[in-house]
Design a protein that fits this description.
0% strand; mainly alpha; 426 residues
Length: 426
């Protein structure tokens, strides 16, 4: 008898170029949003006069967030009807254009109130863009991934995000070390926005050859037959909408606490040297990027739900103690940023997988785009404004109790999630 020869299963190879192309738009989006928040301490007075310049700058930041749900709905529905690729190309063009516009805008001193109006218009374009990019890139990554590797594929979403934020932080560190305060306020803050425009060109080049997902091709006719699609997400998938809102609330608060709000808070309200803040954030962000893929792989092996529960519980317990360490001293700052962002990777590494698994393909981009972005607008866009206003009122610690309350709500919502590892998308 001749024994049959069994060939070993071919080792899976990650389509790295495709994953990078899908994720680079997200990198650009978050690079631009991060530099706006972190460099606001330098350009606030360029666009707004008087003592309320910082508050008005953050108000513009927050207002742009409320265009994200509109972008999520319009561009998400566009992606469900016309394809993920054209939607992702459109979003990256909007974001890059807004970034370049901010980088070359005249100041209030030069053109008066036209300056903040133009700033707001640029931010609106970026808000619309980001609303579509997050949902469409998440859907794309979820749809191209094998069922048993969706966590690994999803990790590239925040590998790109973290890398972009790291570039923004390093750029801030380098500029703060090489330019004087007057130079930063005069022209230094413009450099990162122009860099964002250059990243947009790279993103367009990488995305030009992306192929559509099989999931979209198989479901595009079904998507076109859905009447009143936004209402359908609520009517047919109310639990999924509630779950998405619940864990996105906490995720958003975590993101904007560590990547945006703490930088101006530490410099302006706790007397921390700006160079130390940028250095600590850069180191912690490198750790954040390094942990994404291992955490994504961990979820493919042990499940999404245990990982999300651990993240929300750790945030509830640790966020207030960490806030007391926001004071001068590099080791204090490293502890705050490294511990906080390391815990956060339990969520970010699998965010596209978790969101994609909530909705069927015919409603996926719209379902994520509308409800994710509405939640981010309410809780993320207001985070820097709230922490700044509370600090001026002498009640800065209240913000961290606010995040703790969000963590408790997030934990309870995550308890209701089904375990979805190794499941096929609908």
């Amino acid at each position: 008898m001749v024994e049959a020869q069994v060939r070993p299963a071919a080792r899976h190879r990650l389509p790295v170029r495709k994953l990078v192309a899908a994720s680079i738009g997200n990198a650009l989006e978050w690079f631009d949003w991060t530099i706006y928040a972190t460099f606001s301490i330098y350009f606030a007075s360029a666009f707004f006069p008087g003592e309320l310049a910082e508050i008005n700058t953050f108000a513009t930041y927050a207002l742009a967030f409320f265009f994200r749900p509109l972008g999520g709905m319009l561009l998400g529905r566009f992606a469900d009807l016309r394809g993920r690729k054209p939607a992702m190309i459109l979003t990256i063009m909007l974001m890059a254009g807004g970034s370049v516009l901010i980088g070359v805008l005249p100041t209030f001193e030069q053109v008066g109130w036209l300056a903040p109006v133009m700033l707001l218009l640029a931010r609106v374009a970026q808000g619309l863009s980001l609303g579509g990019e997050v949902s469409n890139a998440s859907a794309y990554l979820g749809e191209i991934a094998p069922a048993n590797r969706r966590g690994r594929y999803s990790s590239f979403f925040y590998i790109s995000t973290g890398s972009a934020v790291l570039i923004a932080s390093i750029l801030g560190f380098v500029l703060a070390r090489t330019l004087e305060q007057a130079q930063m306020e005069s022209f230094g803050w413009r450099i990162p926005f122009l860099v964002g425009g250059a990243l947009g060109v790279i993103g367009l080049w990488l995305r030009r050859n992306l192929a559509e997902t099989e999931q979209y091709q198989q479901n595009k006719q079904a998507a076109r037959r859905v009447p009143h699609p936004l209402a359908t997400t609520l009517r047919q998938h109310p639990k999924a909408v509630g779950q998405l809102v619940g864990f996105t609330m906490l995720s958003t608060l975590c993101y904007y606490t560590f990547f945006s709000a703490l930088t101006p808070f530490a410099v302006n309200n706790r007397g921390v040297d700006e160079v130390e803040v940028f250095l600590a954030l850069s180191i912690a962000t490198a750790l954040f990027v390094a942990l994404q893929y291992p955490m994504g792989a961990l979820s493919d092996r042990f499940g999404r739900k245990p990982q999300l529960l651990a993240w929300s519980a750790a945030t509830a317990v640790l966020i207030v103690p960490l806030s007391t360490l926001v004071r001068p001293g590099i080791w204090n700052l490293l502890a705050v940023f490294c511990v906080g962002l390391a815990c956060y990777t339990a969520m970010t590494s699998i965010a596209p997988a978790v969101m994609s698994e909530l909705f069927p393909t015919r409603l996926r981009a719209l379902g994520i785009g509308a409800w994710y972005n509405l939640t981010v607008a309410c809780f993320g866009g207001t985070a820097p404004l709230i922490i700044s206003a509370l600090a001026k009122a002498g009640a800065s610690s209240v913000f961290f109790w606010y995040v703790t309350a969000g963590a408790v709500v997030g934990f309870l919502v995550i308890l209701s999630l089904p375990e979805t590892r190794n499941t096929e998308l609908r």
